[in-house]
Structure formats: C-alpha cells, structure tokens
Amino acid sequence: MEMNIALLPGDGIGPEVIAQAVKVVNAVAKKFGHTITFKEAITGAAAIDAVGNPYPDATHEVCLASDAVLFGAIGDPRFDNDPSAKVRPEQGLLEMRKKLGLFSNVRPTFTFPSLLHKSPLKKERIEGTDLVFLRELTGGIYFGEPRGRNEQGTKAFDTCVYSVEEIERLARMGFEFAMKRRKLLTCVDKANVLATSRLWRETVQRLAPEYPEVTVEYEFVDAVAMRLVQWPKAYDVLITENLFGDILTDEASVISGSMGLMPSASLGLKTKLFEPIHGSYPQAAGKDIANPLAAVLSASMMFEYAFDLMDEANIISEVVNLSLEKGIVTEDLSEGEKAYKTSEVGDWLAEQIA
Amino acid sequence: MEMNIALLPGDGIGPEVIAQAVKVVNAVAKKFGHTITFKEAITGAAAIDAVGNPYPDATHEVCLASDAVLFGAIGDPRFDNDPSAKVRPEQGLLEMRKKLGLFSNVRPTFTFPSLLHKSPLKKERIEGTDLVFLRELTGGIYFGEPRGRNEQGTKAFDTCVYSVEEIERLARMGFEFAMKRRKLLTCVDKANVLATSRLWRETVQRLAPEYPEVTVEYEFVDAVAMRLVQWPKAYDVLITENLFGDILTDEASVISGSMGLMPSASLGLKTKLFEPIHGSYPQAAGKDIANPLAAVLSASMMFEYAFDLMDEANIISEVVNLSLEKGIVTEDLSEGEKAYKTSEVGDWLAEQIA
Ligand SMILES: CC(C)[C@H](C(=O)O)[C@@H](O)C(=O)O
Ligand SMILES: CC(C)[C@H](C(=O)O)[C@@H](O)C(=O)O
C-alpha cells in the first residue's frame, strides 16, 4: 500500500519520540511491502518562533494531503503563566483539530501486566481495565462564541455550544465502538445543570433504540470522576463532550500506571491524527530520555484506524510488550536496572520488527 | 451561646443522617451550656412534591434567620433521566446557594488511619493526605446567561461568566486558608483555553504579592485530575471555579477511601451551610443503614466555621475517631463485624459526648 504520512513533531519531547515512531513505521513498511512518504511540518511553539503562527497554512496543506498525521506534542512553559500572550502554542492545536474536522478523540486506557505495580491504585482495582473514551474534540466551550472580556476588563466569559449533529456523529461512533467491544456505552454529562448536557442526553436517548444490543448508562461527570478511580473495570466505552473529556481522559490515563505509554487517535472528516497523550514534557526535552512507547503505540493505532492493517498494528504492540518484558525501557520504567535512551529503544523495536 | 440552626434534611438518606447530627449537636450544647433552636424546612424533591418548588420562600426565610444551616442532601432518580422535567431538585440547591450568597464551598480531604486500607489507592500514596478545596459555588457555567436552546431546538448553549470580584473574594479566602495551613496555594484553571480561566489566573497573580509567605502554583485542571490520584499529598489549599471544583472535589473524596465520611462547609455572605458530600444515595434511603459520620463531621465544621468554637468542634471529631476505632460503624465500614444502624451510631456518639 502507498501511504502519505504527515509528521508534526511539535514541541518539547515531541521530535524525539516521533523519530522513534518513524523508525518503527519504516520497519513495518519494509516487512510488509508498503511504500511510505513522510512529509514533516512545523507546529506549536516551534512554529510561533519560526513564522509567528502555531499552525501555519503550509502545515495545514501537508496534513490535508496526508492519509494520516503523526503528531508529537504541543506546549511550552514560556507561554503558560503569561495570560496576556497574544499567540499560544495551544491555539495551533485547537485550530488544527477544527480545520481538519477531528471531532473524535479516541483514548484507550488499558493495563500492561508487567506495569501494574506502577499504578497508584491497587492491583485488584485495575487489573484487566480496558476502557476507551471518545472525547468530542471540535466543539463545546473550547470553540464557542462569544468568549473574551467586557470592555472594562472586569468580566470574562466563555460559551459552551453543541448542535444535535455534533453530538450525534460522536454518539454514533460511540455506539459502533461499543458494538465491537463489550457493548456498554456510558454517556458522561452534567444534565442536572447544563443545557448542553441535556441535549447530549436527549440525543443519545433518541439513538439508543437503533443499537438494541448496546446497554446505555448515563452518568454525571462528577460521579465518573469518582468511579474511574474506584472501579475502572466498570467501564467499556465512554462518550463525552470536549472539556469533560479533557479532564477525565487524563485522570483515566494515570490509573493504569502507564501514562507514558498511552496513545490516542483523533478521527474525523479530513484526515486522521495519531498522538501520544503525554504532552510536550519540556523538562525532559533534548536529553534522549523520554519514553517513546506512547508515540510508537500511536503508530500502531495509525495502522489500525487509518489503514485497517491489523497485522501491522499488532506487530507493533507485540514488540512494545516484548521491550517491557525484557526491560529495554527508558529511565521512567527501568527501576534501578539499566535505562536505555529514547533512541536506543526505538532502534531495538525497529530491529525486532525486521 | 445562643444558636439558631436551620435544618434542611432534604432527600434520600438526608433526613436519617441529619437526625444523627442533631443528636450530636444537642449533646455538645448540653455539655458546653449552649442554647440551640432548630428550625426545620423542606427542600429538594420532597419540596417539589409538597409545594412544587425545590427551594420554597419559606425555607429561604428560615435559612436567612439562621446562624448556620445543617443540610442533608438533594436529588431523586425520578428526575435524572427525564431531560424534559420542568422543575428539578438540583435547581433548589443552586437557588439556595445563590440566594444565600454561599460563594465558597470548603471541601477538605483527609485520611483516617483506621480506614487507609479502604482506599483504592496504595497506602503510601495517601497516608497523611491533608488538602482542602475552595470551590467557587455561585458563579461560572452553573449560573451564566444566556443558556438554553435555539428556536428549532437543534442547538444548546451554556455560558461561563466570572467577574474579578467573584474571583477575588474566593482567592483571598484561599490565601487566608493557606496562611493558616502549609502555605501552599494551587490555582486550578484551564488558562490555555478559557478566557474565564485567564481572568482567574491574572487575578490570583495580582493578589499574590499581598501574601508573600504563600507559595502559589498554577496548574491546569486536567493535570490536577492526574496528580490528585498520583500524589495527593502534594497539595495543601486548592482554589478553583465551580464546575472544575464539582469534578475535582468528588475525585479527591474518593482517594481517601473515606468518601462516606467527608463533610463540607459553604461560606459566604448571608449564612453558612454545612453538608455531608455523599449526596442523597436513594438506594439506602429509609433503611437506617446510611453512614451518618459525614453529617456528624459537618456539624463539627459548623462549630468551627460558624461559631468559632474549637473545643466543641474537636470533641465531635474525637468521638467520630473513637467510633471508627471501636467499630461502632454502619455496614459500609463494618467489614464482616457487627454493623450498627444509622440511629445506633448517632446514639452512641451522643452518649460518648455526654
Ligand atoms: C493543550 C490543551 C489545549 C489540550 C486540550 O485541552 O485539549 C490538551 O490538554 C489535550 O488534552 O490535548
Ligand atoms: C447536584 C449537583 C447540582 C451538585 C453540583 O454540581 O454542584 C452536586 O454535584 C454537588 O457537588 O453539590
């Protein structure tokens, strides 16, 4: 197969971990006889520094022309505590999501048997956890207008908006995921307070009869924030709006004890994007110590979700498991044993595939 | 001292647990020579059924005339999955908070040595956790206008609004709490996305120089959702807006393993309200099995925050600790030993105080 892949390494440790994903993708392509063309483009703080825009048009063109985007991370502490900064790296991320129509952020949380002891939670609580969030990614309070300040600057406001169509396309994807999994769908909202949440709940209730095999539960976001910690195994597929998803998917990632390993996919209208969830982690940037496994597993999700190539996807998760078992891991996982460099882990994984 | 206390038992297990708090308050009053006048009033689903309004004017008058309100819980599953219900119990709660000016919800999370093993988290992660959230309670997306639907019903919207004054009064309370504690204040926001969050951050940054002894940290809400599970001991005082506070305080309550025991105080302009955080828990209502300790500890917070009577507050927490040590507990905590009834626990606590 011929594949056009856009590479957006971004900020912080992004470039280092994406470089390892590329090694792995190349090894898979060679083994299975695919032809891959990579095109690299700038985003985030790097792009602000270079051209004053965190998501330049040229980068957008590269993404549009791609079958899939491999994305590193965006974010730079220089901008975080400066509420008056005019351009922020995160704006690039949001613009990219919106312009590429990436309305569904797929965030699995699962456990690795060899890493269970790393979790802050007790083993019996998390063993076998296998849930996936579909977070709505191009609507809600992230994009609603009006937003800003009153003239005197004494008041600020944001608007959360959802249309039935936005909810419906995300919800249908949720039902379809549930059909392929354990057939349990949880709609997470705050319908006891928010008008938008009531539209979410109504819409999901209207669709439910079309998927009679799926059991649908409705839970308030605050209750889910608790139950995720108490008993994550209770969940299968969770659907939710943008801001709730932001909070809950990060919370969920930490229960597995393997946050540095969690990949994600953003699906939608114009292309598909694959991204480790760990963020730019600036403290580790440039040191060749960052854990590349989340980026590598994002490449595995790419073969599955963008190209429907399950053998290619599976061989990647298998070598990742092998690296964990054999201790070919970076310092965050090495536990007093030899710590490998980011680049060494990437090399090792690529060799195993070959 | 003479004290006027409004009793709002509310829905579900509210009446049962408030009854135990009353026994304890009476015992304390007798011991320390205070005169207490209780006035009971209706709220929630109970009030909808009785007079069609979850926070009737008569109830508001009782609260206004009180020095403190002891509140049970509001909420009834009859209303939860009916997005079209015209009146909801929760509206009464929100109206009460707004009309009484209860702008700061104080939610401590701490651990009980004898209950550490109940937590889903590992002991070493939580032992010694002692944090307190100040959640803004009368602003933000809970109250902002406009909210509702477009004419065709195809779109819904909510508005999040904050004024500098609303942020400042909550933030000042946060600095003052920090001064009396470990002098660490964490401002939780989403300043990389939301205009309201940027005003929060700016306001806190402006006030910080007035409290030079307090270390101020700024963290994004998604990061806090993770770190609360990873290392809750890192926090001392956290301030945040209404919706983030709703989610994070519930998450925090579960890490201690003692969710059924966590009290809260809502402070503000016209009176002070004290409330167990467990909610109405309808499945247990009427069975005399609900754990009354959170309501009883809310009464302890009442003596501290409404009347500045520390001896009275402390004796209550001491007898609660004693009941835990001696196993005079309801079935949620009895672990195969004898389970006491809600009312028996209340009687025992009152006797110990006498
Ligand atoms: C960086 C930030 C704008 C972003 C978000 O809130 O969506 C991040 O937290 C994420 O989850 O991808
Ligand atoms: C019942 C609901 C409206 C309420 C809230 O969201 O504030 C509750 O969750 C709480 O935290 O007191």
UniProtKB/TrEMBL annotation, chains A, B:
Spell out where the chain crosses the membrane: none
Sorted UniProt keywords: Amino-acid biosynthesis, Branched-chain amino acid biosynthesis, Cytoplasm, Leucine biosynthesis, Magnesium, Manganese, Metal-binding, NAD, Oxidoreductase
GO biological process annotations for this chain's record? Answer: L-leucine biosynthetic process
Catalysis performed (reactions): (2R,3S)-3-isopropylmalate + NAD(+) = 4-methyl-2-oxopentanoate + CO2 + NADH
* Cofactor needs: Mn(2+); Mg(2+)
Which residue intervals define the domain Isopropylmalate dehydrogenase-like in the entry? 4-349
The EC number on file is 1.1.1.85
Q: Cellular location of this protein? A: Cytoplasm
Pathway listed for it is: Amino-acid biosynthesis; L-leucine biosynthesis; L-leucine from 3-methyl-2-oxobutanoate: step 3/4
Q: Where is this site: Important for catalysis?
A: 142, 190
GO MF terms here are: 3-isopropylmalate dehydrogenase activity; magnesium ion binding; NAD binding
Q: Which PANTHER family match?
A: 3-ISOPROPYLMALATE DEHYDROGENASE
Q: Which NCBIfam families match?
A: leuB (TIGR00169)
**Briefly, what is this protein's role?**
Catalyzes the oxidation of 3-carboxy-2-hydroxy-4-methylpentanoate (3-isopropylmalate) to 3-carboxy-4-methyl-2-oxopentanoate. The product decarboxylates to 4-methyl-2 oxopentanoate.
Q: Write down what this protein is called.
A: 3-isopropylmalate dehydrogenase
